[in-house]
Amino acid sequence: MRHDTPQDTPQDTLYLASQSPRRRELLTQLGVRYELLLAGGDEDAEALEAVLPGESPDDYVQRVCALKAEAAQRRRERRGLPPCPILTSDTTVCRGGDILGKPGDAAEAAAMLASLSGTTHRVLTAVTVVSTLGARHALSISDVTFRPVSAAEIDRYVASGEPLGKAGAYGIQGRAAEFIERISGSYSGIMGLPLFETAALLREAGLRF
Q: Where are the alpha helices (DSSP H) in the chain?
């Protein structure tokens, strides 16, 4: 008769180290039970997202995601929480080799959107799951094509406030959907958490859902 050890006993709960409401919605869609494991005031979460000189978008998003996972693991240990699996994710938008992060203000958001108008860009979302079985990683790559978007349309969209806080200055699940002519890849990955890859990682980590 087989007896589970603490390392391979299935888990029921996940720690989500992300403030994104979209990632919460997507985990709920999967039926995953989770608890938030967010950075405290003593952590400089923004510093993790700094781009290194010459770093490619693919390397950048995977490195940042892994760093977030390491920080979350230390956070869990400091807080004395049970060793449930931890999920982190990071999304970046890139046009060519240029990384389009979260715009700092309305003017930067408008400039990003203007650069995406009438072109195809890539959306990269990295996922890391850390558990007693180790760290597992996945990368979702999608292509998104914007129709030509007028300056007036961009101004109206920026005025809505939606672009702020979003990589590439838009959210596919919001008003920007009318700009998107087609996608190739993962819709949920473009939202911020690719469900196919995420579900596979969670099952490998022994999470029940």
A: 21-30, 57-78, 106-116, 151-159, 187-191, 195-204
By the 10 Å C-beta count (0-12 exposed, 13-18 middle, 19+ buried), 24 is classed as middle
Q: What is the pLDDT of residues 130-188, one digit of tens each?
A: 999 999 999 999 999 999 999 999 999 999 999 998 999 999 999 999 999 999 999 99
Kindly name the residue from 8, 42, 44, 90 that is annotated as catalytic. 90
Beta bridge partners of 121: 144
Please say if 58 is a catalytic residue. Answer: no
Residues 103/32, Cβ–Cβ less than 8 Å: no
At the top level of CATH, the class of 13-204 is alpha beta
Residue 3: helix, strand or coil by DSSP?
Answer: coil
Task: Say how far apart CA 15 and CA 195 lie, in whole Å.
Answer: 16
Instruction: Give the Å distances, CA to CA, from 174 to 22, 150, 157, 171, 200.
Output: 11, 18, 10, 5, 27
pTM, entire model:
0.90
Q: What is the largest CA-CA distance in the chain?
A: 69
* Helix 21-30 / helix 195-204 crossing angle, nearest 10 deg: 70
